[in-house]
Amino acid sequence: YPMERERSQTMSEQKATILLVEDDLNLGFVIQDALKRRGFTVHLCRDGKEGLRKFNEQPYDLCVLDVMLPQKDGFSLAEDIRMVNALVPIVFLTAKSQTEDRIAGFKAGGDDYLTKPFSHEELILRIEAILRRTQGKENEARERDRFEVGDYTFDHRNLMLSHPTEERKLTKKEAEVLRLLCLHADQVLPRELVLNMVWGDDTYFLGRSLDVFISRLRKYLKLDPKVQIVNVHGVGFKLVIDR
Prior knowledge:
There is one protein chain. The protein has 243 residues and is of the alpha/beta class. The chain has 10 helices and 12 strands. It has helices at residues 2-14, 25-37, 48-57, 74-84, 99-107, 120-134, 137-142, 172-183, 191-199, 204-220, and strands at residues 17-21, 41-45, 62-66, 90-94, 112-115, 146-149, 152-155, 160-163, 166-169, 189-190, 227-232, 236-241. Helix 3 (48-57) packs parallel to helix 4 and helix 8 (172-183) crosses helix 10 (204-220). The longest helix has 17 residues, at 204-220. The protein is elongated.
């Protein structure tokens, strides 16, 4: 039945891409397999820091986060994700069922909450219900790939920073740092968030690397005096554009 197979393939291709962060590898593989069989694309990470770095690498339609994670717990991970994407739906998985945990989950920006053990069918039904509600809204967030930065245009997807007098191809990491600054224009962007999203860690050594990247970006943006990257001592950086 080639027509039938082609139709189901097309439906699969339209299914969402999901970030799954679960430190219990057996459970993670089982959930990943169940979602893949339903046609979703699923990327599995084992800890909160790896999950945050993966989230920064590509757009996701939905995140499924275990609450009790090593390196960075699910609530902290959700708060960091919310700082760069207010719209992507988040579902929490937890072994606890206390009301306080549910409240903490929703405060961290969660859209739904499942207590272990749960059936895969229930998880899939909840995911599909959330995606039906949020379809279209998330596309707006996914398309935040072009930014006007004073006289510059920054095309994150193609790593291009363009000024009327010159064009510059950025490295992937330079582009990721600049995108985070643009998403937080006129707000303080915490150092720790940039380090965890771009490098996957926030050690002192990587902190020095980030300073080098910020210096480079300042040089690239120097043709427009209205654009500045300001150091906020002990906290992070702020992209300021005088309009």
